[in-house]
Amino acid sequence: MKKILFLDIDNTLYSGKSGIVPESAMRAVNEARANGHPVFLCTGRSKAEASRYLAFPVDGFIFSSGTLITVGGKTVYDHPIAPEKVEEIAGLVRSCGMGVLMGGAQRAYLDAKCWGDVVNYFSRPEADADTKLRDMRSNGMAPMEQRDRNDPVYKMGASTNHGTSFEPLLKILPPPFRLIHTLSSPEGDFGDISDGSIMKSDGIRRVLEYTGMNVNDSVGIGDSGNDIDMIRFCGTGIAMGNADEEVKQAADWVTSDIDEDGIRNAFLHLGVIG
Hints:
With 274 residues, this protein is an alpha/beta fold.
């Protein structure tokens, strides 16, 4: 029976620990597609932040937790954040002393604090400054002062010192916007801010409608808080071995750590590869 597979990127496909996509994961994706099972990347990253993955051998993308969707290179859903809301949310983030990210289609724009909080997630901590700059740029990131206001913003983000609560910002974010803690680096924690009326599960539903596939044949694989609704929505939900505990509790099955062939083992468990 054909499955349709939806994979998160950060710490599901891309390892923040090793700084690579494990070779076993890419082999598994290629084999699954060769066996007739479509694979989509379903990420909280904006299209710009996912720029290095756009050439990956997959069937489509759900960006920014569902606000921009492409299938076979064709855009099938496009819902950026209203410009006035972008400025309002940026002001609220800064009022809490946190760093700001604006995730567009062409670039993701980070202020100086946000850049400093997350740079070591995209590079090894021991990397020199030139390497870190190159790695940030290769992930579609640019300093806030280079922002192109004609570049629509599909998601936002807030960063704060490692271990510092996002609670002050959560209290003042206007509905329907939500913040979910998505990753940690040695210097800071990062949370995605998105339109809470559009979630990864909504993006998957739209892909299923477009492709004519059944939700019972869908598989969601992820590791962090913004993957829970995807894991619960899909016919089969799988958590990575390195996933947050609440993600594991929501899943039907838990695979191994991303750096211990987690994707390959999940695909073997599903029977989409041999």
